[in-house]
Amino acid sequence: MDWLLQQLINGLALGSIYALIALGYTMVYGVLRFINFAHADVLMLGAYAAYFVAPAVSSVVPLPSLTGAILVSLISVIICAGIGILIEFLAYRPLRKRPRLTVLITAIGVSLFIEFTCQHSAVFGADTKPFPKLLPEHDFHLGKLVVSSNDLVVVVTTLLLLAGLWFIVQRTKMGTAMRAVSHNQQAAALMGININRIISFTFGLGSALAAIAGILYAMKAPGIDPLMGVQPGLRAFIAAVLGGIGNLPGAALGGLILGLLETFAGGISGLSNYRDGIAFGILILILLFKPAGLLGKATVEKV
Amino acid sequence: MSSSPAFLNGAKRWLLVGIVLAAVVSMFSGQFNRYHLGVIVDIGINIILAVSLNLINGHTGQFSLGHAGFMAVGGYTAAKISLVVSPMLPPALQPLLFLGALIAGGLLAALAGFGVGVPSLRLKGDYLAIVTLGFGEIIRVIVQNMEAVGAASGLKGIPKYTTLGWTFGLAAVTIYFVTSLVNSTYGRGFIAVSDDEVAASSMGINPVRYKVTAFVTGAFFAGIAGGLYAHHKQFLSPTGFDFLKSIDIVVMVILGGMGRTAGVVVAAILLTLLPEVLRQFSEYRMIIYSLLIIILMMARPQGLFTWNRKKGAA
Amino acid sequence: MLEVKDLEVSYGSIKALHGVSLNVPQGSIVTLIGANGAGKSTTLRAISGLIKTRSGSVTYSGEDITNQPAHKIVAKHLCHVPEGRMVFANLTVAENLRMGAYLRNDKAGIAADMDYAFTIFPRLKERINQAAGTMSGGEQQMLAIARALMSQPKCLMLDEPSLGIAPILVRAIFDQIVAINKERGLTILLVEQNANLALGISHHGYVLETGRVILEDSAAALLKNPQVRAAYLGD
User: Fold this and answer.
1) What is the pLDDT of residue B10?
2) pLDDT of residue A299
3) CA distance A142 to A147
4) pLDDT on residue C69
5) Chain A partners of C102 at a C-beta cutoff of 8 Å?
6) Which residues are listed as membrane-spanning (chain B) (predicted)?
7) Would you say C2 and C60 are in contact if contact means Cβ atoms under 8 Å apart?
8) What are phi and psi of C155, to 5 degrees?
9) pLDDT band at B309, cuts 50/70/90?
10) In this predicted model, what pLDDT tens digit does every residue of A251-265 receive, in sequence order?
């Protein structure tokens, strides 16, 4: 029972991070119908932004502290939102009317470009760097259960961001326009909506969430390196497909499910080595039997 | 692509030229230094990989990002067989063993290709790309955990069977098989399926059979290439068959122009040589490579050697 | 108010419009009639900026708007209700109307226009919080027109408002088109296959055939024209 609860807590924390990343994949898919492979690398850049910003911030606000952590995160969010918008502008916008597979391969190219550039010794270098402590850490003991403050921070931050995102998408003009664009770009243009601006906004929003996810992931990880985004990125992408790509609640749900499954599988000896395989196995099963995902609506392929 | 029977002769000519060339070159293989020999064999292996993926991605219009997975299945199977059997055989029988091991690897890879071909019946475009990517990763994870093939530390001491002759002979067979398959009356169906599946099926062409055939055949030759690779490098590790390797092969097919065998062969040669040329800039090699992918997709998504096809026919 | 001169449009190598010229005077209802594929929709799409033109010009309120992006043309109060309605199926009726008012920030004015939309199409009020995709074709057409009205158009282009809609609703929609034109002084450019219905409410008409204007006259004259009667009015 204790084991079960412990795994549940760990799984929720991991799943929350996947959910945040998955939202970015799903939002971009919603408006542009392609998989932004570089999203995982924006997450890594978010962690690095925090890594470089933290010393500067600590000269103004002491670290670790809540204000300091929020300040560092805000700056990283702004940097990453800018990078996300820039990637779309430089690499994807020129290909707007091309076949989806052309864009998909370009996205893979962009992802590889960011990863290899960051691995270069003149940029970040390939080595693992220790991530600065942004928040005071404390382990809470509840009977035999151990809940780290970091896990709580991850879950609470995710809940707050999900609520914020829900508000933006459902209640603001920009969010409604996003949904309009994702349904029909031409009709949206006829409303006076500047499609390019909405797409930039979507990339910015998704990248901002990725930046936070990157920081949260780095807080739990032993260190950061230029390839740190690849694994969580793949999982989050699978989570987005699991929930129904293009569907925001689906992405959050898919992230949680995947985080929980992975944690439970990791806790069972003999299965733990197959974690990667399990995630992909789920992906393939979902695509074969319910390609629209858990919450997605079945759509007819447009010819 | 020409539809005249002359092209079928062309395919046979390819085979003949290839095999003769392979035989002649292998007679002089003692003249090359080890490094050059290694690069030339790499070229041959990449030609097999690119031409076989071209059957799936180019001719049939599917999209596989998991070709390295098939290569791994073939490579590990063949390597394991020769590791176990070769000590029991006299030297004279070793080439026979090699051929057997290669075919066994190809067949197992073909079986895996069947496994991936079936989902391809329901999925299209980027979804299919992801399933194949996932499949490739699953194979890698399985290999990484299989003690019998060395798990994460890899499989060592594989006999050095691969020669120039074997490599280019098999490359010629691959090209011959794929071109004559596509240009046969039966094979017209591949192109029909890639052009318009619905129209093809309304004309009595069964897209299911063609897609599965493409995956099975493509995987078979990728498995052969894997076997050659194993007996060339004499060492296999799961990381050699990762996502990046699949991307490499995909880029060869795109660069050569999807569905254009000659272009794909040239692209395989160029892209094998590129990293060697960039060797002294090894720090920047992969950065340049990834930039190349982006620029290629923006400037010439139809491939380097294609002029008369409609733009962006991907 | 709206003047189109020698408009040429091609899809790839296929020419869809071979020099179409039209004039839509302020306050009038002008109809384009023609068979399927004559280029009626293409003309509207080129005017509203959804597709690029090869040559020719579009002048609106004295300003050259040729090949401007669609979202900028809407801002000039020239609005297009596209063929097939294209309501946002995933958005509610209210959200669709608010998207129509995307470029506006006057809350009071938006509320007033929404009320106006509900008075001309009361059904929309009943369905205000329903997802647009769940409504009937006629209701969606009403929503599409109401949504366009939310952007305060001075000139409205309607593409096949009767297509696939129950006859009883077609009547209601056409009555409201006339009302909008009379009460609000909106200039209307109408594309219709149902030539009888369209010419009946129009002042002027153009007949399009294979991307060319082959005939133009007052609507009343076109209704009497034997050539038009034979080809488009089913005589």
Assistant:
1) 59
2) 47
3) 8
4) 95
5) 173, 177, 191-193
6) 12-29, 35-56, 68-89, 95-118, 125-143, 163-182, 212-229, 249-274, 286-305
7) yes
8) -135, 130
9) very low
10) 999 999 999 998 888
CATH code for the domain defined by C2-87+152-232: 3.40.50.300
Is there a contact between C173 and C165 (Cβ–Cβ < 8 Å)? yes
Per the DSSP assignment, residues forming a β-bridge with A148 are A139
Output DSSP code: residue C131: B
Angle, CA B115 vertex, CA B111 and CA B120 arms, to 5°: 135
* A177 contact residues in C (CB cutoff 8 A): 99, 102
Residue B5's pLDDT is 46
> Model ipTM?
0.93
Predicted pLDDT at B133: 85
Mean pLDDT over each residue of chain C, to the nearest integer? 93
Q: A167 and C28 in contact (C-beta within 8 Å)?
A: no
Q: Which chains touch B (3 or more CB pairs under 8 A)?
A: A
The two tokens of residue C44 are 């509207």
- Chain-chain contact of A101 with B119 (C-beta, under 8 angstroms): no
**Beta carbons of A113 and B291 less than 8 Å apart:** yes
Residues on chain C touching A169 (C-beta within 8 angstroms): none
- How far, in Å, CA of C118 to CA of C94, rounded? 11
Q: Which residues, other chains included, contact A248 with Cβ-Cβ below 8 Å and sequence gap of 6+? A: A23, A26, A27, A165, A166, A169
Nearest to A101 among B63, B284, B293 (CB): B63
pLDDT band at B9 (very low <50, low <70, confident <90, very high): low
**pLDDT (average), residues A194-207:** 96
How many C-beta atoms lie closer than 10 Å to residue C14's C-beta? 8
Q: List the single residue in A103, A109, A277 with the smallest CB-CB distance to B293.
A: A109
The chain A residues in contact with chain B (CB within 8 A) are 34-35, 91, 94-95, 98-106, 108-110, 112-113, 115-117, 120-121, 234, 237-238, 241, 273-274, 276-277, 280-281, 283-284, 287-288, 291, 301, 303
Which value, in Å, is the radius of gyration of the alpha carbons in chain A?
19
CB-based contact, B241 to chain A, within 8 Å: no
Mean pLDDT over residues C120-143, rounded?
94
For the CA atoms of chain B, what is the radius of gyration?
A: 19
Contacts of A122 (CB under 8 A, 6+ apart): none
Residues 203-232 of B with CB under 8 A from A: none
Half-sphere exposure of A280 (CA within 13 A, CB side): 21
Measured between alpha carbons, how far is residue A9 from residues A133, A141, A151, A154, C3 in Å? 22, 13, 8, 11, 67
Residue to substitute from C67, C76, C102, interface A, most A β-carbons within 10 A: C102
- The mean per-residue pLDDT over the stretch B9-19 comes to 67
Mean pLDDT of B283-303: 88
For B229-268, how does the pLDDT look when each residue is reduced to its tens digit (9 = 90+)? 999 999 999 888 988 899 999 999 988 888 888 889 999 9
Q: Who wins on pLDDT, B9 or B186?
A: B186
Give the Cα separation of C75 and A113 in Å (integer): 40
pLDDT in tens, A78-87: 999 999 999 9
B254 and A108 within 8 Å at the Cβ level: the answer is no
Distance CA A294, CA A31 (A): 20
Subunit partners of chain C (3 or more CB pairs within 8 A): A
Inter-chain touch A190–C91, beta carbons under 8 Å: no
